[in-house]
Design goal:
Blueprint lengths: L9 H13 L5 E2 L4 E2 L3 H9 L1 H12 L1 H24 L3 E3 H10 L14 H10 L3 E5 L4 E5 L4 H19 L1
Antiparallel strand pairs: 1-2, 3-5, 4-5
Helix pairs in contact: 1-3, 3-4, 4-5
Bound molecules: zinc ion.
């Protein structure tokens, strides 16, 4: 469990979603998956009955929501990375920009990660990517562990061995 991810009370998660919704999120409510036009619209939204009802569901089980949002975020981010760039070394922020260019993307503030670098470090810890911190920021390289890729690796290793021994 990453720092700060496991100890949120229902109230603090509600506040977190609300507060970030007003600042970083450009007035998007992740819980309802609703985008509002401006601060006023957002204010209206969070006092609406449908939002309140949704928040009660979240409050009843905040861990489950954070967990599934985090999973979804990771899955979508990695699909951008692996489909567009394969195992090329990439500037993490560039991949993130590509990820959020999809207007239906899941916002990071609904996940357990409070920043991109925290998320990148998680990918490194899990062995999903090679990660490197530079002065410019983080670089990530996707590690392809699919059976196909492993087979490819094994084959090229065998070929190399054959070549060397002949
Ligand atoms: Zn809402």
């Amino acid at each position: 469990m990453s720092k700060g991810g496991g100890f949120l009370t229902p109230k603090s998660i509600a506040n977190r979603i609300k507060a970030k919704g007003l600042t970083k999120l450009k007035f998007y409510c992740q819980v309802c998956e609703k985008a509002c036009r401006d601060a006023n619209g957002f204010k209206c939204h969070i006092t609406s009955e449908s939002h309140q009802r949704q928040m009660l569901l979240v409050a009843a089980n905040p861990g489950r929501y954070i967990h599934s949002f985090s999973d979804q975020f990771k899955q979508d981010f990695l699909s951008v990375l692996s489909h567009s760039h394969g195992t090329k070394r990439m500037f993490a922020n560039q991949v993130y920009q590509e990820y959020i260019a999809d207007r239906n993307h899941l916002h990071m503030n609904a996940t357990r990660w409070t920043s991109l670098s925290e998320f990148v470090k998680h990918l490194g810890r899990e062995g999903i990517c090679h990660v490197e911190e530079t002065e410019r920021g983080w670089y990530i390289t996707w590690i392809d562990n699919s059976p196909k890729a492993l087979e490819r690796q094994a084959n090229s290793f065998l070929l190399l061995k054959k070549k060397r021994s002949s």
